[in-house]
Amino acid sequence: MNSQEILQQVNDFIARMPYNREPQALYEPVKYVLSLGGKRIRPVLMMLAYNIWRDCPQDILPQAVGLETYHNYTLLHDDLMDRAEVRRGQPTVHRRWNDNQAILSGDTMLVMAYQLMAEGLTDKLNPVISLFTETALEIGEGQQYDIDFELRNDVSEEEYIEMIRLKTSVLLACALKIGALLADAPAEDAEQLYCFGEQLGLAFQLQDDYLDVYGDPAVFGKAIGGDILCNKKTYMLINAMRLADARQLAELNRWLADEQPDAQQKIAAVTRIYNETGTDRLAIDKINHYFDEALETLSGLNVASERKQHLLDYAHKMMKRKK
């Protein structure tokens, strides 16, 4: 199957998911979050990886949707921590309901993710759940680094790359490797796909950071400049501080220290400094660097080229996105 056919399978499965437990107030936000759509990148990657060795990717729909449920749980809690108001063009859960509802429904999604991931597994239960659990721990570690970095102005590029590897890349890598494990792929190929996912994830997150500044909010699905307002130490902010002259650095530090800035003024001022220092172009170069590494890693996968063509096509599609 190509990625579009797999995406349809994933969306159909999610649409059929039962929400017949009580109280309904707990499950309404879960259904809401999963019904908002999205790119479904992680389940699609898992099924594309499985499809390299097996011809029925729909056989692992529970595991693929389990990973998507987990991903959406992290987004729900991220939005709460960031006080974000919009996700995929719609109000976030804590805005539509309240903070407590967001916490509890998110926790429920985490349990549902494990339930789906384990469904029908026998001999592969231990390796799959072990990888999934290790990934979940790493994502929590990455989120904590992200929070810690907001209070620091000396974050290095190396620290930032490790943070996004943990927060974003490992989940893409996990999706691909679980697909390979479930398809009985050779261990070396499964590990190769994991490395491909890490590199693709770095390019993807760098692109996400770039779009948060330079994307079209009508297309991006959330307000532009959120990272700037939260003082998130992105690749662009780290390098802008490194490349800024005395005047630009003083201005950046003033905005970082301002606890109640005018949002639009801050976004405009910081974006201008990014443009002046050439940080926007540096970010694009870094995105291309990691994507090229990912493609090289995928080319080394020990299967016929036609078996990995759909995965290769999807990787290119991911990096051409505007949202």
Notes on the structure:
The protein has 323 residues and is mostly helical. It has a single domain, classed as Farnesyl Diphosphate Synthase (Orthogonal Bundle), CATH 1.10.600. The chain is 74% helix and 1% strand. The chain has 16 helices and 2 strands. The chain has helices spanning 3-15, 24-35, 41-53, 61-82, 93-96, 99-118, 125-149, 157-182, 187-214, 217-220, 226-229, 235-243, 246-257, 263-277, 279-299, 309-318, and strands at residues 86-87, 90-91. Strands 1-2 form a two-stranded antiparallel sheet. The radius of gyration is 20 Å and the shape is globular. The two termini are 24 Å apart.
Please give a quick description of this structure:
By secondary structure, this protein is an all-alpha fold. The chain has 16 helices and 2 strands.
